[in-house]
């Protein structure tokens, strides 16, 4: 049973872990807080970058001798393997930590076992504290480990009647300046930003992060099946961030020198699973899908959308393209139902964050 001080410390550890978003991939984000026997914080830290010290090590260094007899509150089970850094389970034991409380078990075969090692050394271990919150902050990494593909967030901006552009194609700007700035935060937290050929042609997007201090630039990905949407001089080809163009296996050489990945065709474009597999192989653990409607529909149809972030502007257009198309949903019974996890005002807009709802089996009525 966790104490009130440990619950408060886990909330702090989750906030610390979130600081690593966009910087630790392909590793998880982790936060750690050390409490003395009186429940006072004596050290804290978070995993700051891949290959660098883990959260527990930062916290132990901050605590020094005060770590002996302390409780370590960690968002993820301490690792039990030696990679670019040593096992955190051993570091905690050597520091004399008396108790470890962690939120989520490590699902990776090479790193799991930290809890058993700690118990074998006489350390008291408890787990499950704020597990739902810890799963959420580490959703990208956990998705990649459990499903072998990147975690995908689909982001869009639309009017209240669901239009992403006017009937004449004009779309700048539907959302407010505050919402557009918030999108750069999402980009900064992602390993890759993905758009389709239609968006590349219509908007010539840049896709790099701007206005976020210390941001690591994501991989810019354009799904250009025929290899004709990205032309020389396109903004996505500049040196602000790395760029990858996904084309069909049989597409002719495109008129630019950007890096290519050739993928099999699927109905209406490229295979979404093949695209995600190729990105995963490059170390991409989180994808921000920014457009357009048909590409988003292909991801939905493939069951590859893990989170939806919609910016709804207080405007009406009455006509124009919608946010989603070609998802293979033809009847209300097949609608992709979502659970809203957050609704907050951003500038003049409403930002709604939602995730696919768990599927509940339908049992026939008994009479």
What can you see in these coordinates?
This protein has helices at 4-18, 55-63, 88-95, 114-120, 131-137, 139-147, 177-189, 197-203, 272-281, 293-301; strands spanning 31-35, 41-46, 71-76, 99-104, 124-127, 151-159, 192-196, 219-223, 243-248, 259-263, 265-266, 269-270, 286-291, 307-313, 338-346, 349-356. The longest helix is centred in the first third of the chain and has 15 residues, at 4-18. The chain has a nine-stranded mixed β-sheet with strand order 10-9-8-7-13-6-14-16-15, sandwiched between helices. A five-stranded mixed β-sheet has the order 2-1-3-4-5, with helices on both faces. Strands 11-12 form a two-stranded antiparallel ribbon. It is elongated, with a radius of gyration of 23 Å. A hairpin with a 2-residue loop joins strand 11 and strand 12. It has ten helices and 16 strands.
Write the layout of secondary structure elements.
Blueprint: H1 4-18, E1 31-35, E2 41-46, H2 55-63, E3 71-76, H3 88-95, E4 99-104, H4 114-120, E5 124-127, H5 131-137, H6 139-147, E6 151-159, H7 177-189, E7 192-196, H8 197-203, E8 219-223, E9 243-248, E10 259-263, E11 265-266, E12 269-270, H9 272-281, E13 286-291, H10 293-301, E14 307-313, E15 338-346, E16 349-356
Parallel strand pairs: 3-4, 4-5, 6-13, 6-14, 7-8, 7-13, 8-9, 9-10
Antiparallel strand pairs: 1-2, 1-3, 11-12, 14-16, 15-16
Helix pairs in contact: 3-4
């Amino acid at each position: 049973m966790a104490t009130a001080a440990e619950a408060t410390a886990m909330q702090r550890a989750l906030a610390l872990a979130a600081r690593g978003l966009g910087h630790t991939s392909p590793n998880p984000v982790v936060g750690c807080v050390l409490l003395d026997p009186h429940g006072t914080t004596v050290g804290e830290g978070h995993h700051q970058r891949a290959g660098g010290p883990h959260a527990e090590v930062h916290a132990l260094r901050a605590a020094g001798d005060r770590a002996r007899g302390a409780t370590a509150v960690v968002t993820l089970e301490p690792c039990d393997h030696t990679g670019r850094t040593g096992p955190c389970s051993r570091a905690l034991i050597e520091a004399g930590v008396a108790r470890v409380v962690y939120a989520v078990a490590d699902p990776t075969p090479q790193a799991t076992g930290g809890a058993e090692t700690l118990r074998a050394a006489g350390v008291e271990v408890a787990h499950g504290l704020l597990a739902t919150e810890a799963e959420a902050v580490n959703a990208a990494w956990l998705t990649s480990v459990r499903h072998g593909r990147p975690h995908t967030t689909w982001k869009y901006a639309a009017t209240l009647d669901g239009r992403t552009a006017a009937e004449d194609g004009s779309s700048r700007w539907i959302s407010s300046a505050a919402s557009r700035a918030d999108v750069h935060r999402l980009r900064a937290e992602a390993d890759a930003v993905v758009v389709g050929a239609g968006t590349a042609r219509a908007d010539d997007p840049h896709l790099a992060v701007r206005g976020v201090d210390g941001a690591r630039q994501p991989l810019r990905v354009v799904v250009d099946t025929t290899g004709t949407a990205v032309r020389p001089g396109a903004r996505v080809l500049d040196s602000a961030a790395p760029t990858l163009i996904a084309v069909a296996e049989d597409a002719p050489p495109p008129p630019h020198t950007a890096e290519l990945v050739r993928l099999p065709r699927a109905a209406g474009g490229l295979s979404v699973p093949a695209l995600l597999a190729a990105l995963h192989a490059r170390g991409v653990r989180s994808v921000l899908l920014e457009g357009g409607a048909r590409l988003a529909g292909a991801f939905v149809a493939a069951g590859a959308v893990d989170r939806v972030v919609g910016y709804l502007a207080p405007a009406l257009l009455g006509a124009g393209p919608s946010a989603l198309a070609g998802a293979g949903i033809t009847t209300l019974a097949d609608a992709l139902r979502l659970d809203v996890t957050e609704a907050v005002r951003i500038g003049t807009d409403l930002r709604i964050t939602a995730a696919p709802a768990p599927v509940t089996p339908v049992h026939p009525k008994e009479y």
